[in-house]
Amino acid sequence: IPTLGGSPLDLPRLFREVLLRGGVQAVMTSRSFKDIARIMDIPASCTSAAYTLRDSYEKLLYAYEQKLVFNRAPDALPPLVPFKNADKAAAAASASASASASA
Fold this sequence. Notes:
Elements: E1 3-4, E2 7-8, H1 11-20, H2 24-30, H3 33-39, H4 49-70, H5 83-102
Antiparallel strand pairs: 1-2
């Protein structure tokens, strides 16, 4: 179990807080991990709290979320796209499709 602020991370609470906000993709898009850190009483001195919460969620809870909410098998998990990269990924995919269509 990861530690944050000198205490073990409360994974069940993290899972509930993320689901209450629509799942990890919605939390990443709205950049709400900082809010979740505040709600979970993680000290402000933990400057990497949002990153650590997101990283821990992706590694330990994402597959469980996908199985519980969407009934997806572990080998069928969609990739997570951070908000700041979502537009870049869509543009790259569009450019790639245009390039291969014109070739």
